[in-house]
Amino acid sequence: MLALAAVLLLAAAGCTSSGGHDGDRSAAPSGRASGARWQPRPGVAWQWQLSGTVDTSVDVPVYDIDGFENGAAAVARLHADGRKVVCYVNAGAWESFRPDAKDFPAALLGRGDGWDGERWLDVRALDRLRPLMAARFDMCRAKGFDAVEPDLLDGYANTTGFPLTAADQLAYNRMIAGLARDRGLAVGLKNDLDQVPQLLGDFDFSVDEQCAQYGECERLSPFVAAGKPVFHVEYELAPAEFCPAVRKLGFSSMRKHLALDAWREPC
Asked: Region (Disordered): which ranges (predicted)?
């Protein structure tokens, strides 16, 4: 209990009520030794921007940006300012607009996932998806990223066009985590709250959308208890509606536009 209290105290220090400057440098993740995987701590502030030119002026220690749309120079600029940088890639759905789209076998493409140009992947096909995801993570590593955010790791809980089971998803998610860690990259579990107990040991942090709106945030508390951050956003709730509760849980939380542009309103 004392250890958990210390973690939550640290997390509370990482959130402020300011709308523009919440990057306490004392909470910044420390640099990693050569060959060591970055291991972020609860409460560290972050920026998540997947659309538009990345605004590097937000004073936070962690940036999460699109891995395909940003090159090594963008990562280097953020590193020069003392930031750690997370590489966003889609691991659960095919995207028609990515340069490697033609490499995905048509048989692995399922129903649309609700976003233009995207279709769920048949994650049971580990042998065929492994080299494709490995290539994406190699790209992240080559550009200098510190971590990866593999999106859509909960296909089994959606209407994908494939009879995916929880066991199928666990096997795939563990493969994804292993590919990242084998390359010295930290890796985040995106959503997939039902499998947090089984996957906690495989992932270094969580990225969650709208757990407050759906009354699910408590289910992510094992990450904080294990000394791992929960990077959390809400789109529809005002900060006053969710920040008090998530501060108590030790989350790194903010409100964002659904387009995930540069705008943010942190807790």
From this structure: 16-39
